[in-house]
Amino acid sequence: MRDAVTTLIKTYDLTGRYLDRDAMDTLKSFYDSGLRRIKAVNVINLNSVDIVKTAAAGMFTQVPDLIRPGGNAYTTRRYATCLRDMDYFLRYASYAIVAADTSILDERVLAGLRETYNSLGVPIAPTVIGIQNMKVRTLELLGTDEDYSFVAEPFDYLSDGLSERDI
């Protein structure tokens, strides 16, 4: 797993360049936002059950066929699996927030997940709705006293990574 600092240094190292003004500004931004990133992840950690339950309730309201007979979240086992997966997405989003780097989402979550879900018949669109609902709930819990716009990035990255692509 990388963070914003190691990613930046790797990029400059591969091109054989010294850190320039842009690199220094990126580093400053990373360290300046550190306390807010830690606070955001602490809020996620303390409220993970609420975030997942609220997001799932919204998703099932938006796509009620999921919990009806024949739906992908019908039966207690499937419902629990859905909540477990949402919790995984939330946990990995929190890692990406701390690192200020979404590469962990490629490595640990997105690599092959869309294909796996498709092969199992797990609908992608409701999954994306659930991820977006978790983003909304997390931002609600953080409030508006400080700028937490960076919190949306890993949720949006997961949603984009799972979504269908035009060929």
From TrEMBL:
TM stretches of this protein: none
Main localisation: membrane
Source species: Thermostichus vulcanus str. 'Rupite'
Protein name (Swiss-Prot/TrEMBL): Allophycocyanin subunit beta
Source species, domain of life: Bacteria
Record's subcellular location: Cellular thylakoid membrane; Membrane
Membrane-topology annotation of the record: Peripheral membrane protein
This protein's record includes keyword Thylakoid: yes
Keyword Thylakoid in annotation: yes
Family membership: Belongs to the phycobiliprotein family.
